[in-house]
Amino acid sequence: MSDGAETLFERIIAGEIPADVVHQDATTFAFRDINPQARVHVLVVPRKRYRNVGELAAADPQLLADVLSACRKVAELEGIGESGYRVVFNTGADAGQTVFHVHAHVLGGEQLALFGSGHR
Ligand code: AMP
User: Fold this and answer.
1) pLDDT by residue (tens digit) across 91-102?
2) N or C terminus: which one in the chain shows less Cβ crowding within 10 Å?
């Protein structure tokens, strides 16, 4: 993976673009989504860039585990560890991925709607 251009999330991690940071550790960085889709909506991003969760899983399974552990930590910090939360990795066009630096959406704080297009 590498097409050279710096992603929005690399600029956020570098502190060049402001963000509401919720949690960070040696390998991951978590901040509130600017356009929240639930009462709690936090993005968890590995500091090292991969395009999507499939590439991350293939290249660095430990880093994927770090991302998921950070999601759990974020849920605890946000007080939704017990009430429940959803972890989403949008991948590619049909899923609506817009930032090609893998990120987990952590959503919760209320009863979440069913997901998908509604197609059965
Ligand atoms: P995705 O569609 O899965 O690629 O998710 C990208 C997410 O990044 C969207 O939910 C956006 O609302 C969010 N986003 C875009 N720009 C920013 C920003 N500057 N700060 C925080 N979240 C952002």
Assistant:
1) 999 999 999 999
2) C
Q: Would you kindly state where each structural domain of the chain is located, as residue ranges?
A: 8-108
Is there an atom of ligand 1 within 6 Å of 7 CB? no
Could you report the per-residue pLDDT of 12-45, keeping only the tens digit for each? 999 999 999 999 999 999 999 999 999 999 999 9
Instruction: Please choose from 34, 56, 74 the residue to mutate so as to test ligand 1's pocket, defined by most ligand atoms within 8 A of CB.
Output: 34
CB atoms near residue 41 (< 10 Å): 19
Query: Residue whose CA is closest, atom 16 of ligand 1?
Result: 34
Q: Rounded to two decimals, what is the model's pTM?
A: 0.95
> Quick check: is 119 catalytic?
no
Does residue 71 contact residue 87 with C-beta atoms inside 8 Å?
A: yes
What is the position in ligand 1's atom list of the atom closest to the CA of 37?
10
C-alpha–C-alpha distance, residues 104 and 87, integer Å: 6
